[in-house]
Specification:
The two termini are 28 Å apart. This protein is mainly alpha-helical. The longest helix has 21 residues.
Amino acid sequence: LESMCNPQLCLKWAKGVLHVAKDHYLEPKLYLVLGKAQSVIALKELTFEKQQLLQKESLEYFERAVKLDPQGVEFIFQYALHLAQAREISAAREQVQNALGLSHDHTGCLHLLALLLTSDKQYTEALQICELALQQHPDNL
């Protein structure tokens, strides 16, 4: 499922399994898969209106995953990442800071936070985040 070679098939499979996984520990992971698949499908859509609709549905799947597992850093990170892609910067920043509160050294969150800070022209803070990330992960340049 990670490769998303066929996002339509992935979406269909995850929706089919979802009703069986209700209240199961895998339920938030299925919503994550749904969000990722829907996001890939949205990127391939030609019309802007359809892209926006599919992207909105994708965000709803990510939000549902976070609601089901509010301690799941990867769920929060993916939600924040896709909020940022939708240009919902303040919401993305709030989510990524929430994720960093749970896991202060999550590389993806640190990177995303630096990008979000630069989008708000907070270059000094972004540089500090980059320096912190390099201190925590010196081999991850």
